[in-house]
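With this grant's support, we have paired protein sequences with backbone structure tokens. One protein thus recorded is set out beneath this paragraph:

_____
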Amino acid sequence: MMHFDHIDYSHKYLEDILGIIRKGILQKQAVLNKNRREGLNSQSLVDAFNIIGTTCVVSTTWIGVQKEHERIDNKGKEDIYFYLNDDDYTRIFFVEAKRLPKYKSTYEEEYVIGKSSTGNPSGGIQRYKLENHGTYKLRHNGIIAYIENKSPKEWYSLINKKITSEYPHDSLLLSTNFANEYTSTHHYHNQIGTFLMHHFWIDLTKNNID
């Protein structure tokens, strides 16, 4: 197998990755359910992403997708990762999954910033800024949100207010040409430079109950 040089794979394969995510969400959105555990919804998406990526439906590049990436630094696990079919199974994109609102809450969220029961950072954007998720070598990262109450419009306003409050030097979420899809730019806490977040929000408020 070919071994690839060390480059920002998240940029080189970005359009392929975004295409896989969009197509997978379109295929699976109807079967995702707000009454299931987040991990089960993510598994349904990963199954679809992996088939799309490895059968080259949206690109000519083989891109595998798996759930729960185990990190060498023991700082936690990314929920979903995309990788190449080279000697090192090179990781090219990471995705964090978040519920809106957070589990057992009506209004709270840990999409931007948060703290786990053990005192560790639990915010989706926060973990990428700290490099507890992702890596400095990859300047594109993803978050998938499962919206379980309120509307995407309401969460858009709430999340942007939280970014303004917690990270005033970062950009707000900006709408793209795709429904419920956004981008935002963020500064690393301990590194020079910025990274781009790709946000995919899935509205489960009207999905059927199991």
